[in-house]
Amino acid sequence: MTASPSTSSGDKARDVEKGTSEAHLLNTTISSLSWSSISVTTTKSSPSEILHNSTGIVRAGEILAIMGPSGSGKTTLLNILARRPLPSSLSFPSTTPEICLNGSPIPLSEFESISRFVEQDDALIGSLTVRETLSFASKLASRQNGRERLARIESLLDSFGLQDQADTLVGTAIRKGISGGQKRRLGVASQLITAPKVLFLDEPTSGLDAVGSWEVVRYLKGVARRNNLIVIASIHQPSTTTFNLFDKLLLLSHGKTHYFGPVGEVTSHYEGLGERWPVHVNPAEVLLELVNTDFADDKTEARRRLEERQQAWEGSDRARKLTADVASQPKGEVVERGTAADKKPSLPSTVVTLVHRSFVKSYRDVVAYGIRLAMYTGLAIMMGTVWLRLPATQESIIPLTNSIFYGSAFLSFMAVAYCPAYLEDYMQFIKEKRNGLYGATEMILSNFLIGTPYLFLISVVFSVISYWLSNFQPTAKAFFTWVLWLFLDLLAAEGLVVLITSIFPSFVISLALVAFANGLWMSVDGFMVPPTSLNVFWKYVFHYWDYQKYVFENMMINEFSERVYACATTESGCQCMWQTDLADQCLIRGQGVLDQYGYKPGYMGKDIGIMMGIIVGYRVAAWIVLKLKK
Ligand SMILES: Nc1ncnc2c1ncn2[C@@H]1O[C@H](COP(=O)(O)OP(=O)(O)OP(=O)(O)O)[C@@H](O)[C@H]1O
């Protein structure tokens, strides 16, 4: 450790105490959040209890720590208190519990408008600056005028000690940004931009050192206290100084409450049970040892003692008083509701914000599009120089066909390179969807809008280099038709990535499945086995909705339907590899090549329609998948 929290961060601490212009954060409407007798079991044939009879109350201005060993039920309880949907593998044994504000339950939409959840995994966008992160969070969450937005951003930068880092990038894998603790503070600040009254935090200090953890909780506590906010955080093993910052503690073990009440009174509770409380030892460590049976030598004895302590809690005056407090809550109304929800941005405005955010990300983060643009440019140079200046002779017909297949198929195959960037956007989407910022429609629309110009740029750059180097049909019309088909090809390939990665949001799985799907589309697109001889199963089950079929077919028609190629002239005369009506002129009509595939010109409009149907189909399917995601 480089410095003690109590000395090194004195200035910052004073800032916190001093406070800044935080008028928008002030909670004047919610006085308490309470819950009673929450139990959760698994839905297996022999259900086991995950949470048992949890009861609690947190008042305005208080910060509650939910602490317990791994697997004790902290995250489950936090998610329930935040009214997040329960996974299908878990259920409430009786009715769905009521989470009350001011002693009364309120509708979910209103609860969502006045509460926010800060995820364990920050899911911040590394290529944005600290200020931009707050600005985009604010634009996505609420409609404010520019002055008010700026005022809130500046006030949060002050409140969380981030003013000096305001214009620093958050940081990506290849560009160092702000520190881990600053990231956590930014994560909290970006949720506070909408002025929630209740804040849930899933392990806000995990992965941070003692000083970093202390700073996060210290800033949080300052903001909560000054503005009367209710803060509930799950926490693993805080240092003594961090532990003492919390007002209340809920200690869990195997889903059961062992203590609920002021942090300062936990020692006397255990001393009252006859436990010897060691001095000069981190209290959080002592507590976790008291409720953890995992590392005991004699597990049976440890479980028996744990059970005894838990029974002692249930029979304690504190527990009885807590139950009585919760039950006797005056049933108040939540008078003035969250201002943020009343002024949610419109769908077009959210889409514009998302496109703007992705645009900033795309030019700062090379992984998004830069690497792909470089990769496709390299591929174009490679292809153009391998298939170099092919003359219009019969020897070029097979190389040209191969180039058409390789170019279209390999380009769409390389769309797998988009998986990591999309996965990042997907994670961001899930976090923001859970916090009620926007939904699947905004995500799919903005993703399509930001990706389309880049794909068009890639199609043009690729074609300008490789088309003319290889000497495909040298007319402007044929060139632009080629660009069009390449563009449609990339749009479909990207749609496939979006769909598969949305279904399986895992880097390895989505990469493998996108590669497999493209491999399948390649093998049935008509090049490997011409459609005239492809067996009926593959033809009727896959070939007709294979987007690569339409690209290959139309690029072939583009090259061959209006072009003629010279046959070979040897001493024995003219030798044509394809016999067409031009054989007597020692030429091959390109249509002769197309005939072996069964391709005929004149259907481009229909094929573009089908291709657009496939592109839209992938996006609609991805939209449905995202809509169903919890
Ligand atoms: N969706 C689920 N289906 C079945 N069991 C679950 C599910 N979620 C959690 N559990 C189980 O419930 C118990 C509590 O899990 P939970 O994640 O709430 O604990 P935790 O205290 O947050 O743990 P950690 O500190 O390791 O994150 C664990 O035994 C876990 O295996």
UniProtKB/TrEMBL annotation:
<dbReference type="Pfam" id="PF19055">
    <property type="entry name" value="ABC2_membrane_7"/>
</dbReference>
<feature type="transmembrane region" description="Helical">
    <location>
        <begin position="366"/>
        <end position="388"/>
    </location>
</feature>
<keyword id="KW-0547">Nucleotide-binding</keyword>
<keyword id="KW-0472">Membrane</keyword>
<comment type="similarity">
    <text>Belongs to the ABC transporter superfamily. ABCG family. Eye pigment precursor importer (TC 3.A.1.204) subfamily.</text>
</comment>
<keyword id="KW-0813">Transport</keyword>
<keyword id="KW-0067">ATP-binding</keyword>
<keyword id="KW-0812">Transmembrane</keyword>
<feature type="transmembrane region" description="Helical">
    <location>
        <begin position="403"/>
        <end position="423"/>
    </location>
</feature>
<feature type="transmembrane region" description="Helical">
    <location>
        <begin position="507"/>
        <end position="524"/>
    </location>
</feature>
<dbReference type="InterPro" id="IPR013525">
    <property type="entry name" value="ABC2_TM"/>
</dbReference>
<feature type="domain" description="ABC transporter">
    <location>
        <begin position="33"/>
        <end position="279"/>
    </location>
</feature>
<dbReference type="InterPro" id="IPR052215">
    <property type="entry name" value="Plant_ABCG"/>
</dbReference>
<feature type="compositionally biased region" description="Basic and acidic residues">
    <location>
        <begin position="11"/>
        <end position="21"/>
    </location>
</feature>
<protein>
    <submittedName>
        <fullName>ABC transporter G family member 15</fullName>
    </submittedName>
</protein>
<feature type="transmembrane region" description="Helical">
    <location>
        <begin position="608"/>
        <end position="626"/>
    </location>
</feature>
<dbReference type="InterPro" id="IPR003593">
    <property type="entry name" value="AAA+_ATPase"/>
</dbReference>
<dbReference type="GO" id="GO:0016020">
    <property type="term" value="C:membrane"/>
</dbReference>
<dbReference type="InterPro" id="IPR003439">
    <property type="entry name" value="ABC_transporter-like_ATP-bd"/>
</dbReference>
<dbReference type="GO" id="GO:0016887">
    <property type="term" value="F:ATP hydrolysis activity"/>
</dbReference>
<feature type="region of interest" description="Disordered">
    <location>
        <begin position="1"/>
        <end position="21"/>
    </location>
</feature>
<dbReference type="Pfam" id="PF01061">
    <property type="entry name" value="ABC2_membrane"/>
</dbReference>
<feature type="compositionally biased region" description="Polar residues">
    <location>
        <begin position="1"/>
        <end position="10"/>
    </location>
</feature>
<dbReference type="Pfam" id="PF00005">
    <property type="entry name" value="ABC_tran"/>
</dbReference>
<feature type="transmembrane region" description="Helical">
    <location>
        <begin position="444"/>
        <end position="467"/>
    </location>
</feature>
<dbReference type="InterPro" id="IPR043926">
    <property type="entry name" value="ABCG_dom"/>
</dbReference>
<keyword id="KW-1133">Transmembrane helix</keyword>
<dbReference type="GO" id="GO:0005524">
    <property type="term" value="F:ATP binding"/>
</dbReference>
<dbReference type="InterPro" id="IPR017871">
    <property type="entry name" value="ABC_transporter-like_CS"/>
</dbReference>
<dbReference type="InterPro" id="IPR027417">
    <property type="entry name" value="P-loop_NTPase"/>
</dbReference>
<dbReference type="GO" id="GO:0140359">
    <property type="term" value="F:ABC-type transporter activity"/>
</dbReference>
<feature type="transmembrane region" description="Helical">
    <location>
        <begin position="479"/>
        <end position="500"/>
    </location>
</feature>
